[in-house]
Amino acid sequence: MKQSYDIVVIGGGTNGLSIACYLAKCGLSVCICEDRAETGGGVENIEPMPGFRIDPHATYLYGAAAPAFEQLELHKFGFRMIHYKNHIGGITSDGRALMYGRGCTEASIESVARFSQKDAEILDAYYTGLLEDPSNMVEYLRSIYWTPPPPAHITLRPEEFPWSLVMKKLGSPLYDPDWNRLSTMELLDMLYESEAVKLTSAMATWYNGPHPCWKGTAIPGMACNDLLWYGGGKPRGGMHSLTHALVRCALHHGVKVFTNCRVEEILMEEGEARGVILSDDAPVKTKKIYADKAVISNAHVKPTFLDLIPARELSADFIERVKGINLKGGSLYVLHIVTTEMPKFIGEADEVFSHGEYPTAVLIDLDSREAMFNMERDVYALNTHPIKPENMLIPFLNQDIFDETVCPKGYHVFSPIYLQVPPPEDHRDGPRAVNDAIEEINGVVIEKIRGVAPNLTDDKIVAVFQNTPYDSSLRNLGFVGGNWMGISQEEEQWYEKKPLPELARYRTPIPNLYLCHQTSYPGGLALQAVSYNLMHILIEDLKIEPGEWWYPSEYFIPSDA
Ligand SMILES: Cc1cc2nc3c(=O)[nH]c(=O)nc-3n(C[C@H](O)[C@H](O)[C@H](O)COP(=O)(O)OP(=O)(O)OC[C@H]3O[C@@H](n4cnc5c(N)ncnc54)[C@H](O)[C@@H]3O)c2cc1C
Question: CB neighbours (10 Å) of residue 328?
Fold first, then answer.
């Protein structure tokens, strides 16, 4: 018996689930085929020790400005967000401390002023002045993340980019379209004078977007900071709670969710995507599922074209360019430490943090950018993992004081502590090199933490867990290279060139096949942005008529413009 749906989605990650919800809410019949036993992709939780819940991948939810929360009414499906007051802090080796966050603006500006009065004024002008009205920030963030890139026949000049239009409309005294040509570090050097302030933003950039030294990425680089500022937080219970809400929403709208169903091939007929072919052991009646309107790939762009589609269906040139998509820059070693005590920081940090609530992320070694550059050299040039403390600038995050559900009383979970490492396939000592060095890496990182929090001695550490990029790539087919942002967020793979220019609007050279994975614009992070952006394109192509609940991006440029 032929099994068919209007839409077949390959993969049940956040983007796969949310596009399924959107389309089913429009009245289409939709099924999701997910390889793993669980949906959610990178948005998952594990319990390595009874009662202790950690996020092996995504931990923060920055998507507060995402239209999906309203449009899909996720609160009705159990979604509850914990907003952080104080999203970032840092400590120098001599115990000076800095912190900032939207929920404790005054304390933030005060703490920055102790490093530089000028920087405090800039921060004040930017966050509490221009973007104080939350709707301004929402408009700005949506113009970047929740707006599809322009159609190929339209080339926007920097002053015409949606975010430039918003800044102009808001009358920003600081913003200049020339920022679009800079790296984040160049922009930070222009704006601020204190190294600690610059480094705090630079590290928020590197761990949530492009490397701060990459040319032409200052906007996505700085926007990561704005995502954090506006809506940094996490779903109560951990990131997987977002998956649960999306699955409930999907089921409510009639989506069929098949797990343990690996798609082996995209079913092609007369050059068009017509459905999917599942692995022999898939627990469904027929191994072929037909898609009457579209197949949507929530798989990484590389396997989508290199594994799931027979090579004869694509040009040799296209295949070579897909192979050439750069993965560098998003592979993270993630450490989780369970302790019986909170850190007692050296110097003034405990005192500073207590005024604005403990920061979710404390950066260790805000002294100079040298550690950041050393780490960059190790990872990008020498293709190895940093192992000397002076080559590491790490964030140290506490989860349980924001969400008591993650561990029993009397314990603390510091999670995740991130270290940049190369993608497994690039590592000069082979793909398992980081896994082979786990004990050594954990030892150095813990020593580094003790440098600023000496009370965390061995007897206070109950357990240590880690997740390497190699582990991530085994766990989730979507995490090619264990890369949290899918592909490198460099100038050549950003905006209308992401992941390749002809794929930027989520369409592909294969009719009826669309992309909906973090390897498409705007990229990594569980923002439900790829799915929202793809909706604009599907509305055009499939002549969908969503209900009144739908609103497009104000800055969307239609294909026939
Ligand atoms: C270490 C780390 C830390 C991170 N931290 C954060 C964070 O703090 N905040 C944040 O927002 N984001 C974070 N991220 C990124 C976030 O996890 C991803 O951006 C997000 O999960 C991507 O969602 P997605 O739906 O595009 O893809 P994925 O989550 O990769 O989902 C793709 C799904 O498709 C399935 N699939 C793939 N191929 C097939 C196939 N052939 N057949 C069937 N199913 C298939 C996969 O199993 C997977 O479930 C982090 C990622 C990592 C690795």
Answer: 18
Residue 360 lies inside a defined structural domain of this protein: yes
Q: Give the phi and the psi of residue 52 in degrees, each rounded to 5.
A: -115, 115
Within this chain, do residues 376 and 458 fall inside the same structural domain, yes or no? yes
| Ligand 1 centroid to residue 74 C-alpha, Å | 19
CATH number for the domain that contains residue 13: 3.50.50.60
Ligand 1 centre distance from Cα of residue 432 (Å): 21
Residues 353-388 pLDDT 10s:
877 678 888 999 888 899 999 999 999 999 999 999
- Rounded CA separation 352/330 (Å): 31
Range of the domain at 429: 85-218+327-474
Closest CA to 514 of 363, 316, 294, 364: 294
User: Does residue 519's CB lie within 6 angstroms of at least one atom of ligand 1?
Assistant: no
- Residues with Cβ within 8 Å of residue 83, at least 6 apart in sequence: 64, 103, 231, 232, 233
Residue 195 in tokens:
């190294």
Among protein residues, the one whose CA lies closest to atom 10 of ligand 1: 525
pLDDT tens-digit profile of 59-108? 999 889 999 999 999 999 999 999 888 888 899 988 999 988 888 888 88
Per-residue pLDDT tens digits for 111-165: 999 999 999 998 888 777 777 788 999 999 999 999 999 999 999 999 999 999 9
Residue 83: exposure state from Cβ atoms within 10 A (0-12, 13-18, ≥19): middle
Looking at the fold, whether 379 and 465 belong to one and the same domain comes out as: yes
Question: Based on the domain organization, do 467 and 506 belong to the same domain?
Answer: no
Q: Are residues 139 and 211 in the same domain?
A: yes
Q: Are residues 281 and 429 in the same domain?
A: no
Q: Answer for the pair 464, 334: CB distance below 8 angstroms, yes or no.
A: no
Identify the residue whose C-alpha is closest to ligand 1 atom 50.
58
Q: Specify whether 21 is located in the same domain as 129.
A: no
527 plus 434 within the same structural domain = no
Both 340 and 455 in one domain: the answer is: yes
For a ligand 1 pocket test, name from 305, 476, 528 the mutation site with the most ligand atoms within 8 angstroms of its C-beta.
476
Backbone angles phi, psi at 431, to 5 degrees: -60, -25
Q: Look at the chain and report how many structural domains it folds into.
A: 2
- For ligand 1, the distance from its centroid to the CA atom of residue 469, given in whole angstroms, is 12
Can you give the pTM of this predicted structure?
Answer: 0.97
Sign of CA dihedral 211, 212, 215, 218: positive
Question: Is 504's C-beta closer than 6 angstroms to any atom of ligand 1?
Answer: no
**Measured from the CB, is residue 15 less than 6 Å from ligand 1?**
yes
